[in-house]
Amino acid sequence: MSIKGIDLGDVQPPELRQLQAYFALTEAVALLNHQVEQQLRAQGEISAVQFELLMALVKTESLSMTQLADGVVYSRSGLTYQAGLLEKAGLVTRRSNPEDERATLLAITDKGRETVAKVLPGHIEVTRRLLYEAVSDEDLDRLRDIMTRVRDNIRTEPPRSAAPRKRRPGRTNP
Amino acid sequence: MSIKGIDLGDVQPPELRQLQAYFALTEAVALLNHQVEQQLRAQGEISAVQFELLMALVKTESLSMTQLADGVVYSRSGLTYQAGLLEKAGLVTRRSNPEDERATLLAITDKGRETVAKVLPGHIEVTRRLLYEAVSDEDLDRLRDIMTRVRDNIRTEPPRSAAPRKRRPGRTNP
DNA sequence: TATTGTTATACTCTATAACTATA
DNA sequence: TATAGTTATAGAGTATAACAATA
Lengths: 174, 174
What we know:
2 copies of one chain form a homodimer. By secondary structure, the first copy, chain A, is mainly alpha-helical. Helices cover 59% and strands 10% of the residues of chain A. Chain A is built from 6 helices and 3 strands, in the order ααβααββαα. A 3-stranded antiparallel sheet of chain A has the order 1-3-2. Chains A and B meet through helix 1, helix 2, helix 5 and helix 6 of A and helix 1, helix 2, helix 5 and helix 6 of B. The first copy, chain A, binds a DNA duplex through residues 47, 49, 64-66, 74-82, 84, 97, 100-104, 164-167, 169, 172.
């Protein structure tokens, strides 16, 4: 198989279909993220990352940095940076964990909850218009199942560069 | 419906399912992109954006900046920046279009083709391992169809912030 | 006047490595 | 010694606005 103009040699039809799926996937998500960023910034003055962090905190009341990092793709320093921004904006608090003085516990504030409440309807609106409008309910469930599987697949086996440090005990190799 | 710990008020079950799909989607793609970036950087010293641009040029031999911008999420200046990097690396050439001296035509070089050829097998390998391994052939086709529809849906109607300037004639409003 | 592209600039974000403190 | 987190710093990337040149 060859893509017009270049000899792609080993790219066989199944791989080509995979490439198409991959490009459609990443392009769609890039466009989607772009719009979501705008909406979150406009209505809540937060980024998509910060929204993710707030959503994680909303569900749990208090998380350590490490626990939070498990849900995001960031380096530890990047997370510290974002936590700093959120704290400065009054959306979260940081305190040390009495049971382990090394840890920092993050908790969402009332203002943080307000921000989530303020931003969430618009977020749902945007994703509905851009994502779900083009997708049947059936496909939506399928999409969720597929991507959940993909996410779990990526999260399990391969070395996560987002976690240069092993979080789980029992592993000693770098 | 409420997510533990906060009253999310208007978030009804269907919206909740949508949110779950959205988060799974973006999280999976973020993880995926991360790994792909590493592979491309390691094997070809290019970023994912640059890979996208090269792939677009491989298929067409010559594109203007505007045409290229249509396929990416970038601002014009961002594209100029990336084109500059690619040119400096010797992977593309820039020349002006004889038929419209305003335009800049990009073309991939032999070295650019070599880079694509060098990087593509690894790219396919990574996406296969991370994306397709968790997905049946059937689901893959479905995923491609769904995301293609989503992409087209986003690209058509709403105002694309990536194109602050209208590319198509006949629209005069800012 | 509208369009194509570049430049200058400022800013956001991310990662690496060194560092502190606790377990 | 290993782990949790922060800081310092450097680099990549992006966007905005002003600009030059062509249509």
